[in-house]
Amino acid sequence: MLDLLTELMDPEHESVGSVLLRRSADAIVIGLSHFALALRSLIVTVSRVQDENPSHNYSASFLLCCVVVVLSGCACSPGIGMLTDSGTSDHHIVIRLHEQKAYLYRGAMVVGISPVSTGREGHNTTPGTYHILEKDLNHRSSLYGAYMMGGKVLKSGVDRKKDPMPPGAEFVGAPMPYYLQIAPAYGLHEGYLPGYPASHGCIRMPGSWARRFYYATQEGSLLIIK
Q: For the chain, which domains are there?
């Protein structure tokens, strides 16, 4: 519910139905891609084992390969990847703007890849070398959100720099869960991904991946944008 509110409070949000439909499609695509990669690896591994040792027991090879594929595939699965890639040491993040993807590395090995939405025109995400300055699990924006009064939303999609606050109202910042701050008012967090750069400069990620990147890094971890 929290991540849905994040999307609906965005100035360019979709309808609730569109959000749910898109998320379901994303989940199916991610699941199929993981299955395809695992199946390909399994076929290649079994074929190599059989070529090297034709007399080897096929059933045993197949079962062994299943275990290897599942364990190696976990590294790129946001839900269970931390079982095989635990801790925060030697992790860093690379954001590739032209791909709109974020790569999580452990040393030189990629252990996670996530789609992202970076800054739109006029709010471009600046390339460079950064370090995580602060982690905030339940961060809220200090600039963007909604004006509320008595528990009711008076105006959503608010930009505090441009939109005056009605008398008696209060500002409620848009939720930005799993926030990794890399500069004042800029960071990586869970948010709405329309399929193109759409943020005010931050790096948005799907919830499952934002959680994965959040718990895989620590304050001081390297983050490169290029």
A: 2-225 (2.40.440.10)
